[in-house]
Description:
Blueprint: E1 3-7, H1 12-21, E2 27-31, H2 47-62, E3 66-75, H3 96-106, E4 116-126, E5 135-145, E6 161-163, E7 168-169, H4 175-181, H5 183-198
Parallel strand pairs: 1-2, 1-3
Antiparallel strand pairs: 3-4, 4-5, 5-6, 6-7
Amino acid sequence: MRKKVVLATGNKGKVKELARMLSCLDFEVLPQSEFDVTEVAETGTTFVENAIIKARHAAKQTGLPAIADDSGLAVHALGGEPGVYSARYSGDQATDQSNITKLLDAMASIPIEKRQAKFLCVLVFMRHADDPRPIICQGEWCGEIATEQQGENGFGYDPVFWVKEQNCSSAQLSPEHKNTLSHRGKALKLLLTQLQNQIG
């Protein structure tokens, strides 16, 4: 019988991406929306703190092991912003598009050679709400902020995250190719290794 694990995110893009990547394990990945898990305030000042808050909350409300992702974009020229506030960069009612628009406006005067950025991802696996030793894995993906949006794939800031080695934006990569390069893909590889070693 497949083990059930709840994915502590309401972001449909992340649910789809993580469920696809976890399919090689004997896990049935269920979004927290199936359990009417309430939203929890992300009061942490780091990706690690926020991921732990979300995983613990989902595990507590569902009684299942939980995986939480906290990730974001850090832009060098903006002092690391939007960082942990990436999802709500343009306000409480932020959308992917409003966040991208705000970012491009903030970067308007930044020359091409100073537009370095990186995506960061922290994945946390908690066996139960009181797990004293959650598995924590981190990944990062370096790139640049493009001057305009390109591509239809992905979500979030993907259309303006330029991947120099591929000569395209993250949103122009296929999901499969993106998963081999991305911050989330790297963090998940580490998590899969640890899960295979530790979860019987």
